[in-house]
């Protein structure tokens, strides 16, 4: 039930949330069967009634099957939203395929449902879907945002293919769902390396701006918290915005005014004209290593993508630009392990800040 989803995030202190179900918006009358052994069992209906009140749950008999009406985005906003306290941003996950690979895109604040566009190959499928999002945004004069999802899921996109992406400057550097291969394998790069390869190509060969990296849960399970399940609380972003509004949040993300995290909290991120400063909100008993990562260039030739330019254990980490960097970003690594990692992805808590392009 969508109200169970929203309630989890409200109760765990989140400021805003976007539910991005596959190829559907939370609009109109939609019904889900109540059935033992499913995500909407009689026991969970009883939990909803206890939590939200007896009149909250609306059911019907459909040819002998009992179904519950799913709450719409408007009903969820009426119940959960508070000015300056909690915000829901409508969203959709567009599900497409090409060359046998799943290609998924999140769109936020859509005017209406966007249908997967297809294409002749991976590159054209990505471009057609992002172009359709741009078309809807332009034709409806609406502030919409998109990002490319989990490119390492089923090894859907190479770093070189991701580099070609136009129409959005956002992709998932971390996805908390199972099977997304955030750390790669013996023959595929992890998402950090994918990010650096793609940005090196974009900034030296394609005259495109840098890609910014988001982290999210991609959660599917709210009752089973075993590592094999895709449960909430694994990845999120922290946004620098003046107000808790859809416009302020989306504009800040588009501008790179955010960092991604699996547990590390930052006090501030300030990439200035001469140095890049990251201030960590230190927790008792936890130590931190900050790596400033980038690609250098010499005589017009890029070096190895994504090398560690500087490393420090200070809680105020500072990197002074040398003048030969194509881009610089920071990754903060905690001494504390993630509390509930996805199966096979035991790792420390991280924070990722966004790449900047210093003057050379």
Give a structural overview.
The protein is of the alpha+beta class and 360 residues long. It is built from 7 helices and 20 strands. It has helices at residues 2-11, 42-52, 73-80, 122-140, 159-163, 191-204, 246-254, and strands at 16-17, 31-33, 59-62, 65-69, 87-88, 91-98, 101-108, 145-148, 170-175, 212-216, 236-239, 258-261, 266-271, 275-280, 288-298, 301-302, 307-312, 316-320, 325-337, 348-352. The strands form 6 sheets. Strands 11, 12, 15, 16, 17, 19 and 20 form a 7-stranded antiparallel beta sheet that branches. The N and C termini lie far apart (52 Å).
Q: Sheet with the most strands?
A: 7 strands, antiparallel
**Approximately what portion of the residues adopt beta-strand conformation?**
25-35%
Overall outline: globular
Poorly predicted parts: none
Features:
single chain, 360 residues, alpha+beta, 7-stranded antiparallel β-sheet, 3-stranded antiparallel β-sheet, 7 helices, globular
Break the fold down into its secondary structure elements and pairings.
Blueprint: H1 2-11, E1 16-17, E2 31-33, H2 42-52, E3 59-62, E4 65-69, H3 73-80, E5 87-88, E6 91-98, E7 101-108, H4 122-140, E8 145-148, H5 159-163, E9 170-175, H6 191-204, E10 212-216, E11 236-239, H7 246-254, E12 258-261, E13 266-271, E14 275-280, E15 288-298, E16 301-302, E17 307-312, E18 316-320, E19 325-337, E20 348-352
Parallel strand pairs: 1-5, 9-10
Antiparallel strand pairs: 2-4, 3-4, 6-7, 7-8, 11-12, 12-20, 13-14, 14-18, 15-16, 15-17, 15-19, 19-20
């Amino acid at each position: 039930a969508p109200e169970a989803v929203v309630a989890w995030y409200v109760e765990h202190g989140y400021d805003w949330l976007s539910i991005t179900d596959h190829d559907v918006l939370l609009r109109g009358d939609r019904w889900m069967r109540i059935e033992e052994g499913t995500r909407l069992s009689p026991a969970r209906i009883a939990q909803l009634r206890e939590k939200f009140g007896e009149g909250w749950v609306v059911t019907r008999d459909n040819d002998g099957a009992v179904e519950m009406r799913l709450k719409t985005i408007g009903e969820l906003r009426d119940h959960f939203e508070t000015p300056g306290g909690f915000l829901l941003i409508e969203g959709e996950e567009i599900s497409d395929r090409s060359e046998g690979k799943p290609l998924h895109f999140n769109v936020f604040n859509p005017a209406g449902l966007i249908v997967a566009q297809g294409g002749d190959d991976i590159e054209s499928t990505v471009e057609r879907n992002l172009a359709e999002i741009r078309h809807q945004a332009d034709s409806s004069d609406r502030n919409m945002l998109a990002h490319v999802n989990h490119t390492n899921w089923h090894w859907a996109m190479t770093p070189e293919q991701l580099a070609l992406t136009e129409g959005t400057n956002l992709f998932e550097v971390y996805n908390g769902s199972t099977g997304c291969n955030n750390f790669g394998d013996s023959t595929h790069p992890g998402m950090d390396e994918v990010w650096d390869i793609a940005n090196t190509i974009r900034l030296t060969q394609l005259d495109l701006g840098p890609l910014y990296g988001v982290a999210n849960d991609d959660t599917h399970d709210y009752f089973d918290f075993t590592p094999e399940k895709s449960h909430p609380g694994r990845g999120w972003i922290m946004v620098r915005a003046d107000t808790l509004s859809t416009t302020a949040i989306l504009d800040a993300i588009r501008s790179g005014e955010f960092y991604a995290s699996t547990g590390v909290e930052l006090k501030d991120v300030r990439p200035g004209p001469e140095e890049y400063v990251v201030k960590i909100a230190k927790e008792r008993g936890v130590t931190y290593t900050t790596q400033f990562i980038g690609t250098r260039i010499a005589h017009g030739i890029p070096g190895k993508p994504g090398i560690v330019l500087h490393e420090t254990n200070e809680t105020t980490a500072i990197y002074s630009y040398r003048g030969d960097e194509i881009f610089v970003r920071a990754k903060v690594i905690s001494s504390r392990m993630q509390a509930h990692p996805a199966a096979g992805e035991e790792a420390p808590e991280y924070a990722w800040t966004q790449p900047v392009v210093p003057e050379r």
